[in-house]
Amino acid sequence: MTNQDYTDINQLLATPKKIVIVSHKNPDGDAIGSSLALFHYLTKTNHQATVVLPNDYPEFLKWIPGQDLILKYESQKEDSDQKLAEADIIFTLDFNAFHRAGDMETVLNNSTALKIMIDHHQQPDDYAKYTYSDVSMSSTCEMVYNFIKNLNGLDHIDSNTATAIYVGIMTDTGSFRFRSTTSATHRAIADLIDKGADNTMIHNQVYDTNSYNRLQLLGCALSNLKIVPESRAAYITLSQKELQQFDYKKGDTEGFVNYALSLNNVVLAAIFIEDLQQGIIKISLRSKGDFSVNEMSRSHFHGGGHTNAAGGKSDVNLEQTIEKFISILPQYNTALHES
Under CATH, to which class is 3-207 assigned? Predict the structure, then answer.
Protein backbone atom coordinates (compact mmCIF):
# COMPACT_ATOMS: atom_id res chain seq x y z
CA MET A 1 0.00 0.00 0.00
CA THR A 2 1.43 3.36 -1.05
CA ASN A 3 1.55 6.69 0.75
CA GLN A 4 -1.06 7.92 -1.71
CA ASP A 5 -3.30 4.98 -0.77
CA TYR A 6 -3.14 6.00 2.89
CA THR A 7 -3.88 9.61 1.96
CA ASP A 8 -6.91 8.43 -0.03
CA ILE A 9 -8.12 6.18 2.79
CA ASN A 10 -7.72 8.99 5.31
CA GLN A 11 -9.88 11.20 3.08
CA LEU A 12 -12.38 8.36 2.71
CA LEU A 13 -12.58 7.99 6.49
CA ALA A 14 -12.79 11.73 7.12
CA THR A 15 -16.58 11.47 7.28
CA PRO A 16 -18.61 8.78 9.08
CA LYS A 17 -19.12 5.60 7.07
CA LYS A 18 -21.00 2.34 7.42
CA ILE A 19 -18.25 -0.27 7.58
CA VAL A 20 -18.30 -4.05 7.80
CA ILE A 21 -15.23 -6.02 8.85
CA VAL A 22 -15.04 -9.62 7.64
CA SER A 23 -12.59 -12.43 8.31
CA HIS A 24 -12.26 -16.07 7.27
CA LYS A 25 -14.25 -19.17 8.15
CA ASN A 26 -13.26 -20.86 11.43
CA PRO A 27 -11.66 -17.64 12.69
CA ASP A 28 -8.57 -17.89 14.88
CA GLY A 29 -6.89 -15.44 17.25
CA ASP A 30 -5.42 -13.33 14.46
CA ALA A 31 -8.72 -13.15 12.57
CA ILE A 32 -10.74 -12.16 15.62
CA GLY A 33 -8.03 -9.94 17.09
CA SER A 34 -7.53 -7.96 13.89
CA SER A 35 -11.27 -7.65 13.27
CA LEU A 36 -12.04 -6.39 16.78
CA ALA A 37 -9.00 -4.10 16.82
CA LEU A 38 -10.15 -2.40 13.62
CA PHE A 39 -13.73 -2.34 14.94
CA HIS A 40 -12.64 -0.48 18.10
CA TYR A 41 -10.49 1.95 16.10
CA LEU A 42 -13.21 2.74 13.57
CA THR A 43 -15.88 3.08 16.25
CA LYS A 44 -13.67 5.46 18.19
CA THR A 45 -13.19 7.55 15.03
CA ASN A 46 -16.96 7.99 14.57
CA HIS A 47 -17.76 5.24 12.08
CA GLN A 48 -20.61 2.74 12.27
CA ALA A 49 -18.62 -0.49 12.27
CA THR A 50 -19.77 -4.12 12.46
CA VAL A 51 -17.77 -7.34 12.55
CA VAL A 52 -19.31 -10.21 10.59
CA LEU A 53 -17.62 -13.61 10.81
CA PRO A 54 -18.66 -16.70 8.83
CA ASN A 55 -19.14 -18.94 11.87
CA ASP A 56 -18.40 -19.47 15.54
CA TYR A 57 -14.98 -19.52 17.18
CA PRO A 58 -13.26 -21.17 20.19
CA GLU A 59 -14.21 -20.47 23.79
CA PHE A 60 -10.68 -19.32 24.64
CA LEU A 61 -11.26 -16.26 22.44
CA LYS A 62 -14.68 -15.34 23.84
CA TRP A 63 -13.38 -12.78 26.31
CA ILE A 64 -11.74 -10.27 23.93
CA PRO A 65 -13.38 -6.84 24.35
CA GLY A 66 -16.18 -6.41 21.83
CA GLN A 67 -16.52 -10.08 20.87
CA ASP A 68 -20.12 -10.12 22.11
CA LEU A 69 -21.01 -7.66 19.33
CA ILE A 70 -19.78 -9.92 16.52
CA LEU A 71 -22.39 -11.17 14.05
CA LYS A 72 -21.98 -14.82 13.03
CA TYR A 73 -23.18 -15.36 9.48
CA GLU A 74 -24.20 -19.01 9.90
CA SER A 75 -26.65 -18.19 12.72
CA GLN A 76 -27.42 -14.49 12.04
CA LYS A 77 -27.66 -14.44 8.25
CA GLU A 78 -30.47 -11.91 7.95
CA ASP A 79 -28.81 -9.29 10.16
CA SER A 80 -25.44 -9.97 8.52
CA ASP A 81 -26.82 -9.62 4.99
CA GLN A 82 -28.43 -6.34 5.92
CA LYS A 83 -25.19 -4.91 7.31
CA LEU A 84 -23.27 -6.06 4.23
CA ALA A 85 -25.89 -4.58 1.89
CA GLU A 86 -25.73 -1.21 3.67
CA ALA A 87 -21.94 -1.06 3.88
CA ASP A 88 -19.99 1.77 2.26
CA ILE A 89 -16.73 -0.06 2.93
CA ILE A 90 -15.90 -3.70 3.57
CA PHE A 91 -12.56 -4.59 5.16
CA THR A 92 -11.43 -8.19 4.58
CA LEU A 93 -8.88 -9.26 7.17
CA ASP A 94 -6.61 -12.30 7.43
CA PHE A 95 -7.75 -13.83 4.13
CA ASN A 96 -7.26 -12.92 0.49
CA ALA A 97 -9.83 -14.92 -1.51
CA PHE A 98 -13.59 -14.78 -1.03
CA HIS A 99 -14.00 -18.58 -0.89
CA ARG A 100 -12.13 -18.50 2.44
CA ALA A 101 -15.20 -16.78 3.90
CA GLY A 102 -17.31 -19.91 3.41
CA ASP A 103 -21.02 -19.18 2.88
CA MET A 104 -20.25 -15.46 2.67
CA GLU A 105 -18.45 -15.88 -0.67
CA THR A 106 -21.43 -15.01 -2.86
CA VAL A 107 -22.55 -11.94 -0.92
CA LEU A 108 -18.97 -10.60 -0.89
CA ASN A 109 -18.64 -11.19 -4.63
CA ASN A 110 -21.91 -9.36 -5.29
CA SER A 111 -21.30 -6.44 -2.95
CA THR A 112 -20.60 -3.06 -4.55
CA ALA A 113 -19.02 -1.66 -1.37
CA LEU A 114 -15.46 -0.40 -1.62
CA LYS A 115 -13.14 -3.14 -0.38
CA ILE A 116 -9.90 -2.90 1.57
CA MET A 117 -7.79 -6.03 2.13
CA ILE A 118 -5.29 -6.45 4.97
CA ASP A 119 -3.66 -9.88 4.91
CA HIS A 120 -0.35 -11.74 5.16
CA HIS A 121 -1.09 -14.94 3.20
CA GLN A 122 0.38 -15.85 -0.16
CA GLN A 123 -1.15 -15.29 -3.62
CA PRO A 124 -3.93 -12.75 -2.93
CA ASP A 125 -6.88 -12.40 -5.30
CA ASP A 126 -7.36 -9.04 -6.98
CA TYR A 127 -10.71 -7.89 -5.58
CA ALA A 128 -9.89 -4.91 -3.35
CA LYS A 129 -9.63 -1.22 -4.20
CA TYR A 130 -6.82 -0.97 -1.63
CA THR A 131 -4.64 -3.97 -0.81
CA TYR A 132 -2.16 -4.23 2.06
CA SER A 133 -0.58 -7.65 1.48
CA ASP A 134 2.74 -8.67 3.00
CA VAL A 135 3.66 -12.34 3.48
CA SER A 136 6.68 -11.41 5.61
CA MET A 137 4.51 -9.99 8.39
CA SER A 138 4.01 -11.93 11.62
CA SER A 139 0.24 -11.53 11.61
CA THR A 140 -2.65 -9.55 10.26
CA CYS A 141 -2.85 -7.93 13.68
CA GLU A 142 0.63 -6.46 13.29
CA MET A 143 -0.50 -5.19 9.88
CA VAL A 144 -3.58 -3.58 11.43
CA TYR A 145 -1.27 -1.85 13.93
CA ASN A 146 0.83 -0.57 11.00
CA PHE A 147 -2.31 0.40 9.09
CA ILE A 148 -3.54 2.52 12.01
CA LYS A 149 -0.04 3.97 12.42
CA ASN A 150 0.09 4.99 8.75
CA LEU A 151 -3.29 6.69 9.16
CA ASN A 152 -1.70 8.69 12.01
CA GLY A 153 -4.15 7.02 14.36
CA LEU A 154 -1.98 5.49 17.10
CA ASP A 155 -3.38 7.98 19.63
CA HIS A 156 -6.79 6.34 19.13
CA ILE A 157 -5.54 2.92 20.26
CA ASP A 158 -7.02 2.30 23.71
CA SER A 159 -6.70 -0.74 25.96
CA ASN A 160 -9.44 -2.64 24.09
CA THR A 161 -7.77 -2.11 20.71
CA ALA A 162 -4.34 -2.90 22.16
CA THR A 163 -5.62 -6.11 23.73
CA ALA A 164 -7.17 -7.33 20.48
CA ILE A 165 -4.01 -6.64 18.48
CA TYR A 166 -1.84 -8.32 21.12
CA VAL A 167 -3.96 -11.49 20.95
CA GLY A 168 -3.49 -11.85 17.21
CA ILE A 169 0.24 -11.19 17.22
CA MET A 170 0.79 -13.56 20.15
CA THR A 171 -1.21 -16.44 18.66
CA ASP A 172 0.09 -16.14 15.10
CA THR A 173 3.72 -15.97 16.23
CA GLY A 174 3.45 -18.94 18.60
CA SER A 175 4.04 -16.59 21.53
CA PHE A 176 6.71 -14.66 19.60
CA ARG A 177 8.90 -17.65 18.68
CA PHE A 178 8.33 -17.94 14.92
CA ARG A 179 10.77 -16.48 12.39
CA SER A 180 8.25 -13.85 11.32
CA THR A 181 8.66 -12.21 14.75
CA THR A 182 10.93 -9.21 14.15
CA SER A 183 12.27 -6.32 16.17
CA ALA A 184 9.42 -4.26 14.70
CA THR A 185 6.97 -6.83 16.08
CA HIS A 186 8.44 -6.42 19.55
CA ARG A 187 8.36 -2.62 19.28
CA ALA A 188 4.67 -2.83 18.40
CA ILE A 189 4.08 -5.17 21.36
CA ALA A 190 5.87 -2.75 23.69
CA ASP A 191 3.61 0.06 22.51
CA LEU A 192 0.51 -2.13 22.97
CA ILE A 193 1.52 -2.89 26.56
CA ASP A 194 2.03 0.82 27.15
CA LYS A 195 -1.47 1.41 25.78
CA GLY A 196 -3.08 -1.06 28.17
CA ALA A 197 -2.63 -4.63 26.87
CA ASP A 198 -2.17 -6.87 29.93
CA ASN A 199 0.26 -9.45 28.54
CA THR A 200 0.02 -11.86 31.49
CA MET A 201 -3.77 -11.86 31.50
CA ILE A 202 -3.96 -12.31 27.73
CA HIS A 203 -1.60 -15.29 27.77
CA ASN A 204 -3.50 -16.91 30.61
CA GLN A 205 -6.87 -16.45 28.89
CA VAL A 206 -5.66 -18.00 25.63
CA TYR A 207 -3.26 -20.73 26.76
CA ASP A 208 -3.77 -21.53 30.43
CA THR A 209 -7.50 -22.18 30.66
CA ASN A 210 -8.09 -25.85 29.80
CA SER A 211 -11.04 -28.12 30.38
CA TYR A 212 -10.48 -31.64 31.71
CA ASN A 213 -11.88 -33.07 28.47
CA ARG A 214 -9.47 -31.04 26.33
CA LEU A 215 -6.48 -32.40 28.22
CA GLN A 216 -7.87 -35.92 27.86
CA LEU A 217 -8.27 -35.29 24.13
CA LEU A 218 -4.65 -34.13 23.98
CA GLY A 219 -3.62 -37.38 25.64
CA CYS A 220 -5.57 -39.30 23.00
CA ALA A 221 -3.94 -37.29 20.21
CA LEU A 222 -0.47 -37.94 21.56
CA SER A 223 -1.20 -41.64 21.85
CA ASN A 224 -2.06 -41.58 18.12
CA LEU A 225 1.20 -39.83 17.20
CA LYS A 226 3.22 -41.59 14.48
CA ILE A 227 6.69 -40.86 13.06
CA VAL A 228 7.95 -41.35 9.51
CA PRO A 229 11.69 -41.12 10.25
CA GLU A 230 12.93 -41.50 6.67
CA SER A 231 11.02 -38.30 5.80
CA ARG A 232 11.65 -36.47 9.09
CA ALA A 233 7.88 -36.26 9.45
CA ALA A 234 5.29 -36.97 12.15
CA TYR A 235 1.52 -36.94 12.20
CA ILE A 236 -1.44 -37.15 14.58
CA THR A 237 -4.92 -38.48 13.85
CA LEU A 238 -8.21 -37.86 15.62
CA SER A 239 -11.37 -39.67 14.56
CA GLN A 240 -14.89 -38.36 15.00
CA LYS A 241 -15.47 -41.07 17.61
CA GLU A 242 -12.47 -39.88 19.62
CA LEU A 243 -13.63 -36.26 19.42
CA GLN A 244 -17.06 -37.25 20.70
CA GLN A 245 -15.58 -39.41 23.46
CA PHE A 246 -13.94 -36.33 24.96
CA ASP A 247 -16.84 -33.90 24.30
CA TYR A 248 -14.93 -31.93 21.66
CA LYS A 249 -15.58 -28.19 21.48
CA LYS A 250 -14.44 -25.85 18.70
CA GLY A 251 -10.82 -24.89 19.28
CA ASP A 252 -9.95 -27.87 21.50
CA THR A 253 -7.33 -29.18 19.05
CA GLU A 254 -5.62 -25.81 18.66
CA GLY A 255 -1.85 -26.28 18.93
CA PHE A 256 -1.91 -30.09 19.02
CA VAL A 257 0.10 -30.35 15.79
CA ASN A 258 2.98 -28.45 17.41
CA TYR A 259 3.63 -31.40 19.74
CA ALA A 260 4.46 -33.51 16.69
CA LEU A 261 6.72 -30.77 15.33
CA SER A 262 8.60 -30.61 18.63
CA LEU A 263 10.00 -34.12 18.17
CA ASN A 264 13.75 -34.45 17.64
CA ASN A 265 14.71 -34.60 13.95
CA VAL A 266 11.15 -33.84 12.77
CA VAL A 267 10.75 -30.91 10.37
CA LEU A 268 7.25 -31.67 9.03
CA ALA A 269 4.19 -32.29 11.19
CA ALA A 270 0.53 -32.86 10.38
CA ILE A 271 -2.73 -33.45 12.20
CA PHE A 272 -5.70 -35.10 10.52
CA ILE A 273 -9.10 -34.57 12.14
CA GLU A 274 -12.21 -36.38 10.96
CA ASP A 275 -15.31 -34.23 10.43
CA LEU A 276 -18.21 -36.46 9.44
CA GLN A 277 -20.70 -33.57 9.39
CA GLN A 278 -18.81 -31.84 6.57
CA GLY A 279 -17.64 -35.13 5.06
CA ILE A 280 -13.99 -34.10 5.12
CA ILE A 281 -10.73 -34.62 6.96
CA LYS A 282 -9.41 -31.32 8.30
CA ILE A 283 -5.65 -30.99 7.94
CA SER A 284 -3.11 -28.72 9.64
CA LEU A 285 0.52 -28.75 8.52
CA ARG A 286 3.55 -27.26 10.24
CA SER A 287 7.24 -27.22 9.33
CA LYS A 288 10.65 -25.98 10.37
CA GLY A 289 13.24 -24.20 8.25
CA ASP A 290 12.61 -23.59 4.57
CA PHE A 291 10.26 -26.51 3.89
CA SER A 292 7.01 -25.08 2.50
CA VAL A 293 3.84 -26.68 3.82
CA ASN A 294 1.99 -23.99 1.86
CA GLU A 295 3.17 -25.61 -1.37
CA MET A 296 2.37 -29.11 -0.09
CA SER A 297 -1.13 -28.10 1.00
CA ARG A 298 -1.90 -26.28 -2.25
CA SER A 299 -0.63 -29.19 -4.35
CA HIS A 300 -2.29 -32.07 -2.50
CA PHE A 301 -4.88 -30.92 0.06
CA HIS A 302 -6.95 -28.05 -1.42
CA GLY A 303 -5.47 -25.52 0.98
CA GLY A 304 -2.59 -23.16 1.61
CA GLY A 305 -1.21 -20.67 4.09
CA HIS A 306 2.35 -19.79 4.99
CA THR A 307 5.71 -21.46 4.43
CA ASN A 308 5.74 -22.99 7.92
CA ALA A 309 2.01 -23.18 8.69
CA ALA A 310 -0.80 -24.19 6.38
CA GLY A 311 -4.19 -25.87 6.37
CA GLY A 312 -6.15 -28.03 3.99
CA LYS A 313 -8.73 -30.77 3.66
CA SER A 314 -9.25 -34.22 2.20
CA ASP A 315 -12.46 -35.57 0.71
CA VAL A 316 -11.59 -39.25 1.27
CA ASN A 317 -11.76 -41.06 4.62
CA LEU A 318 -9.20 -40.83 7.40
CA GLU A 319 -7.34 -44.02 6.50
CA GLN A 320 -7.10 -43.07 2.82
CA THR A 321 -5.95 -39.55 3.72
CA ILE A 322 -3.11 -40.93 5.84
CA GLU A 323 -2.15 -43.29 3.03
CA LYS A 324 -2.02 -40.36 0.61
CA PHE A 325 0.08 -38.28 3.01
CA ILE A 326 2.59 -41.07 3.49
CA SER A 327 2.67 -41.81 -0.26
CA ILE A 328 3.64 -38.25 -1.22
CA LEU A 329 6.38 -37.86 1.38
CA PRO A 330 9.16 -39.53 -0.69
CA GLN A 331 8.93 -36.79 -3.35
CA TYR A 332 9.78 -34.29 -0.62
CA ASN A 333 12.51 -36.29 1.12
CA THR A 334 15.39 -34.28 -0.34
CA ALA A 335 13.85 -30.97 0.71
CA LEU A 336 12.93 -32.35 4.14
CA HIS A 337 16.47 -33.54 4.80
CA GLU A 338 17.91 -30.22 3.63
CA SER A 339 15.50 -28.12 5.71
Answer: alpha beta
